[in-house]
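task queued by scheduler; priority normal; single chain, no ligands, no partner chains; default sampling; output format set to C-alpha coordinates
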Amino acid sequence: MKQIVSLSGGKDSTAMLLMMLERGEQIDGIVFFDWGMEFPQMYEHLDKLENYIQRPIIRLYPPHSFGYYMFEYPKQKGRTKGQRGYGWAQFRYIRWCTRIKLDVIHKLVNPEDIECIGYAYHERFSRAGNKHRWKSIPRYPLLEWGVVEQEALKYCYSKGFDWGGLYKIFKRVSCWCCPLKPERELKALKDNFPDLWQRLLDMDSRSPYPHPKREIIRAMK
Protein backbone atom coordinates (compact mmCIF):
# COMPACT_ATOMS: atom_id res chain seq x y z
CA MET A 1 0.00 0.00 0.00
CA LYS A 2 1.35 3.39 -1.03
CA GLN A 3 0.33 6.85 0.14
CA ILE A 4 0.05 9.33 -2.74
CA VAL A 5 -0.44 13.09 -2.42
CA SER A 6 -2.87 14.50 -4.99
CA LEU A 7 -1.60 18.05 -5.39
CA SER A 8 -3.74 20.74 -7.00
CA GLY A 9 -1.09 23.35 -6.22
CA GLY A 10 -3.47 25.57 -4.25
CA LYS A 11 -3.18 26.61 -0.61
CA ASP A 12 -4.94 23.58 0.87
CA SER A 13 -3.09 20.82 -0.96
CA THR A 14 0.21 22.69 -0.55
CA ALA A 15 -0.36 23.04 3.20
CA MET A 16 -1.35 19.37 3.39
CA LEU A 17 1.86 18.28 1.66
CA LEU A 18 4.12 20.47 3.81
CA MET A 19 2.39 19.41 7.03
CA MET A 20 2.66 15.75 6.11
CA LEU A 21 6.38 16.17 5.50
CA GLU A 22 6.78 18.01 8.81
CA ARG A 23 5.02 15.17 10.59
CA GLY A 24 7.31 12.62 8.96
CA GLU A 25 4.45 10.87 7.19
CA GLN A 26 5.00 8.31 4.48
CA ILE A 27 4.73 9.85 1.04
CA ASP A 28 5.34 7.55 -1.90
CA GLY A 29 4.50 9.99 -4.64
CA ILE A 30 3.23 13.51 -5.34
CA VAL A 31 1.08 13.97 -8.44
CA PHE A 32 -0.12 17.13 -10.15
CA PHE A 33 -2.51 17.02 -13.10
CA ASP A 34 -1.98 19.78 -15.65
CA TRP A 35 -4.56 20.86 -18.23
CA GLY A 36 -2.20 23.64 -19.29
CA MET A 37 -4.74 26.21 -18.11
CA GLU A 38 -3.18 27.29 -14.81
CA PHE A 39 -2.15 30.84 -14.01
CA PRO A 40 1.55 31.46 -14.81
CA GLN A 41 2.13 32.04 -11.08
CA MET A 42 0.94 28.51 -10.34
CA TYR A 43 3.66 26.97 -12.49
CA GLU A 44 6.22 29.17 -10.71
CA HIS A 45 4.79 27.99 -7.39
CA LEU A 46 5.14 24.33 -8.34
CA ASP A 47 8.78 24.80 -9.32
CA LYS A 48 9.44 26.65 -6.07
CA LEU A 49 7.66 23.98 -4.03
CA GLU A 50 9.55 21.16 -5.71
CA ASN A 51 12.85 22.88 -4.97
CA TYR A 52 11.79 23.53 -1.36
CA ILE A 53 10.84 19.93 -0.54
CA GLN A 54 13.64 18.44 -2.67
CA ARG A 55 11.30 15.81 -4.01
CA PRO A 56 9.88 15.36 -7.52
CA ILE A 57 6.31 16.38 -8.30
CA ILE A 58 5.01 14.05 -10.99
CA ARG A 59 3.28 16.08 -13.69
CA LEU A 60 0.40 14.27 -15.36
CA TYR A 61 -1.23 15.37 -18.61
CA PRO A 62 -4.45 14.48 -20.47
CA PRO A 63 -4.35 12.43 -23.69
CA HIS A 64 -5.38 15.53 -25.67
CA SER A 65 -5.34 19.28 -25.08
CA PHE A 66 -8.02 21.21 -23.22
CA GLY A 67 -9.00 22.90 -26.47
CA TYR A 68 -9.47 19.57 -28.22
CA TYR A 69 -11.93 18.34 -25.60
CA MET A 70 -13.75 21.66 -25.42
CA PHE A 71 -14.13 22.30 -29.17
CA GLU A 72 -13.29 19.19 -31.21
CA TYR A 73 -13.96 15.99 -29.28
CA PRO A 74 -16.65 13.96 -31.15
CA LYS A 75 -19.53 13.01 -28.86
CA GLN A 76 -20.08 9.26 -28.94
CA LYS A 77 -23.56 8.78 -27.48
CA GLY A 78 -26.72 10.36 -26.17
CA ARG A 79 -28.75 13.21 -27.61
CA THR A 80 -25.58 15.07 -28.58
CA LYS A 81 -24.01 12.14 -30.45
CA GLY A 82 -21.99 13.45 -33.35
CA GLN A 83 -21.62 16.94 -31.87
CA ARG A 84 -18.05 18.13 -31.58
CA GLY A 85 -16.71 19.45 -28.31
CA TYR A 86 -17.86 19.29 -24.70
CA GLY A 87 -17.99 23.08 -24.40
CA TRP A 88 -17.96 24.65 -20.97
CA ALA A 89 -18.23 22.12 -18.17
CA GLN A 90 -21.79 21.58 -17.00
CA PHE A 91 -22.75 21.26 -13.34
CA ARG A 92 -25.53 18.67 -13.36
CA TYR A 93 -22.96 15.88 -13.09
CA ILE A 94 -19.22 15.48 -12.64
CA ARG A 95 -17.50 17.95 -14.98
CA TRP A 96 -15.75 16.46 -18.01
CA CYS A 97 -12.48 18.19 -17.09
CA THR A 98 -12.59 16.66 -13.60
CA ARG A 99 -13.57 13.23 -14.93
CA ILE A 100 -10.63 13.13 -17.33
CA LYS A 101 -8.30 14.36 -14.59
CA LEU A 102 -9.41 11.56 -12.26
CA ASP A 103 -9.10 8.96 -15.03
CA VAL A 104 -5.49 9.99 -15.68
CA ILE A 105 -4.56 10.06 -11.99
CA HIS A 106 -6.08 6.65 -11.37
CA LYS A 107 -4.01 5.08 -14.10
CA LEU A 108 -1.07 5.80 -11.81
CA VAL A 109 -2.68 5.33 -8.39
CA ASN A 110 -3.76 1.78 -7.59
CA PRO A 111 -7.09 0.89 -5.89
CA GLU A 112 -5.26 -0.28 -2.77
CA ASP A 113 -3.25 2.96 -2.48
CA ILE A 114 -4.15 5.82 -0.14
CA GLU A 115 -4.75 9.07 -2.03
CA CYS A 116 -4.36 12.18 0.13
CA ILE A 117 -6.70 14.97 -0.94
CA GLY A 118 -6.43 18.56 0.29
CA TYR A 119 -9.93 19.38 1.51
CA ALA A 120 -9.72 21.91 4.33
CA TYR A 121 -11.82 21.49 7.47
CA HIS A 122 -15.46 22.54 6.89
CA GLU A 123 -14.90 22.49 3.12
CA ARG A 124 -17.86 20.68 1.60
CA PHE A 125 -18.03 17.65 3.85
CA SER A 126 -20.50 16.13 1.38
CA ARG A 127 -17.78 16.18 -1.29
CA ALA A 128 -15.37 14.47 1.06
CA GLY A 129 -17.99 11.79 1.48
CA ASN A 130 -18.28 11.18 -2.27
CA LYS A 131 -15.96 8.19 -2.18
CA HIS A 132 -17.26 6.91 -5.50
CA ARG A 133 -15.16 9.61 -7.16
CA TRP A 134 -11.94 7.96 -5.97
CA LYS A 135 -10.83 4.56 -7.24
CA SER A 136 -8.17 4.53 -4.54
CA ILE A 137 -8.65 4.84 -0.77
CA PRO A 138 -9.31 8.55 -0.08
CA ARG A 139 -7.80 10.33 2.90
CA TYR A 140 -8.32 13.96 3.95
CA PRO A 141 -5.47 14.98 6.30
CA LEU A 142 -6.58 18.60 6.77
CA LEU A 143 -10.02 17.39 7.82
CA GLU A 144 -8.36 15.00 10.28
CA TRP A 145 -6.29 17.82 11.74
CA GLY A 146 -9.03 20.45 11.80
CA VAL A 147 -7.14 22.86 9.50
CA VAL A 148 -9.47 25.48 7.96
CA GLU A 149 -8.75 27.34 4.72
CA GLN A 150 -7.40 30.53 6.28
CA GLU A 151 -5.07 28.54 8.51
CA ALA A 152 -3.79 26.65 5.48
CA LEU A 153 -3.10 29.89 3.61
CA LYS A 154 -1.40 31.51 6.63
CA TYR A 155 0.75 28.41 7.06
CA CYS A 156 1.84 28.51 3.40
CA TYR A 157 2.67 32.21 3.68
CA SER A 158 4.82 31.43 6.74
CA LYS A 159 6.81 29.01 4.59
CA GLY A 160 7.41 31.64 1.92
CA PHE A 161 4.77 30.58 -0.62
CA ASP A 162 2.56 33.41 -1.88
CA TRP A 163 1.65 32.38 -5.47
CA GLY A 164 2.80 35.77 -6.73
CA GLY A 165 -0.12 37.40 -4.95
CA LEU A 166 -2.88 35.32 -6.59
CA TYR A 167 -4.71 34.81 -3.29
CA LYS A 168 -4.93 38.55 -2.83
CA ILE A 169 -7.00 38.64 -6.04
CA PHE A 170 -8.87 35.33 -6.08
CA LYS A 171 -10.32 33.07 -3.41
CA ARG A 172 -9.38 30.02 -5.44
CA VAL A 173 -6.55 29.70 -7.94
CA SER A 174 -7.67 26.75 -10.05
CA CYS A 175 -7.68 26.94 -13.86
CA TRP A 176 -8.05 30.58 -14.87
CA CYS A 177 -10.92 29.72 -17.25
CA CYS A 178 -12.95 27.68 -14.73
CA PRO A 179 -16.69 28.34 -15.29
CA LEU A 180 -17.24 28.06 -11.53
CA LYS A 181 -15.69 31.49 -10.97
CA PRO A 182 -18.13 33.96 -9.37
CA GLU A 183 -18.78 37.34 -10.94
CA ARG A 184 -16.27 39.19 -8.76
CA GLU A 185 -13.49 36.81 -9.82
CA LEU A 186 -14.39 37.18 -13.47
CA LYS A 187 -14.00 40.92 -13.03
CA ALA A 188 -10.68 40.35 -11.26
CA LEU A 189 -9.54 38.22 -14.20
CA LYS A 190 -10.49 40.99 -16.63
CA ASP A 191 -8.76 43.70 -14.59
CA ASN A 192 -5.57 41.81 -13.71
CA PHE A 193 -5.07 39.39 -16.60
CA PRO A 194 -6.43 41.08 -19.76
CA ASP A 195 -4.68 38.58 -22.03
CA LEU A 196 -6.37 35.64 -20.30
CA TRP A 197 -9.68 37.53 -20.32
CA GLN A 198 -9.47 37.87 -24.11
CA ARG A 199 -8.76 34.16 -24.38
CA LEU A 200 -11.85 33.43 -22.27
CA LEU A 201 -14.00 35.58 -24.57
CA ASP A 202 -12.63 33.74 -27.59
CA MET A 203 -13.30 30.36 -25.96
CA ASP A 204 -16.88 31.36 -25.19
CA SER A 205 -17.47 32.45 -28.77
CA ARG A 206 -16.40 28.98 -29.98
CA SER A 207 -18.05 26.85 -27.29
CA PRO A 208 -21.02 24.64 -28.27
CA TYR A 209 -22.49 25.50 -24.86
CA PRO A 210 -22.61 29.06 -23.50
CA HIS A 211 -20.59 30.05 -20.46
CA PRO A 212 -22.81 29.74 -17.34
CA LYS A 213 -22.31 33.48 -16.80
CA ARG A 214 -22.34 34.55 -20.46
CA GLU A 215 -24.62 37.54 -19.86
CA ILE A 216 -22.34 38.80 -17.08
CA ILE A 217 -19.28 38.32 -19.30
CA ARG A 218 -20.89 40.21 -22.18
CA ALA A 219 -21.80 43.08 -19.87
CA MET A 220 -18.12 43.35 -18.85
CA LYS A 221 -16.77 43.72 -22.40
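post-processing summary
- The first helix runs from residue 11 to 22.
- The beta strands are 3-6, 29-33, 58-60, 114-117, 137-139.
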